[in-house]
Give the backbone structure.
Amino acid sequence: MAFSLDDLTCPLVAAPMAGGVSTPSLVAAVARAGAIGFLAGGYLSASQVRDDIAAVRSLGASAFGVNLFWPPGRPADLSAAQAYRTLLAPEAERRGVILPQPHDDDDAIEAKLGVVAEEAVPVVSFTFGVPGADVVGRLHRAGCRVWATVTSASEAVIAGRSGVDLLIVQGPDAGGHRATFDPDLAPPTQDLGALVEAVRAVSDLPIVVTGGLTTPEQVGRWRGQVAGVQVGTALLDAEEAGTSPTYRRALRDPEFTSTELTRAFSGRYARGLRNGFMTAFGDQAPAAYPAVHQLTAPLRRAASTQDDPEGMSLWAGTSWTAAPTGPAARILAGLMR
Ligand SMILES: Cc1cc2nc3c(=O)[nH]c(=O)nc-3n(C[C@H](O)[C@H](O)[C@H](O)COP(=O)(O)O)c2cc1C
């Protein structure tokens, strides 16, 4: 039977968090708590996605989703990425890493679509864009529900035309990447309330809201108003999350006083704790996703190994200081108080 949010005992959605945060054990713990969690399929190979799906199922979860990045409609600007590579060279030397050559990359989307369809994953969500009606239809026929993340009313219209079942409306306070379809656009700054109204004016699809909702009060404001509430930052310090110890410490460190949107790490705007890398390179990073992501990957890995939060992408929403700690089930129950 097709997945429905109405079947959940807890109408919360654990956001997909790429980079190792959304582990199968987090997704399974969220399902046990009566909510739905997402594996983050972005950046992974198709076989890694298949293994993670198997791991979630082996932990007893049946209601879960997989998030995929819909590839950009045009190749990244590789000459701009080359110039950024030159700018990063001293940082690479300091960290003892060799920067790769930037290249085009479609994130193995076709192979991953094959996996989620074959596995009849209950929900497939898309970020950075939506596929056409042909792909959405193929997923529907495989038994998947299809959700799309949008950051504006015009994106909601595009997603609606593709035949998706639900819109995840992402506001400007969200941690991690803004889902904005056009990588050249600065992401909209309209607050979540105004954005939901604008989306409702153009679409009848059910809505899950997300972005900056980390306390029971912030979640409670939306209960009964929308189909569900998606939280990311609220689960960053959950026991089952794959968040590294350095990242967890940074979330509690009073030295970090703000979040900011930056293209410095991936070439697409994302919100994280403002740190040294962002300050040094934020103004100079080109809109060249995923080439910039490829370039900074070894730098971020080295910083993490060196236990240095100043060189890592510390994605977090604006309400990060309220992020609870403990088992995921307790965090979700706390948000529903
Ligand atoms: C560490 C981290 C990684 C994220 N990775 C993804 C991702 O892979 N795919 C996606 O659609 N959204 C991703 N997001 C964004 C979330 O889906 C969601 O929009 C955001 O977490 C909501 O804001 P909040 O963090 O304030 O709750 C990520 C967010 C964080 C904090």
Residues 78-95 form the longest helix (18 residues). DSSP finds twelve helices and eleven strands in the chain.
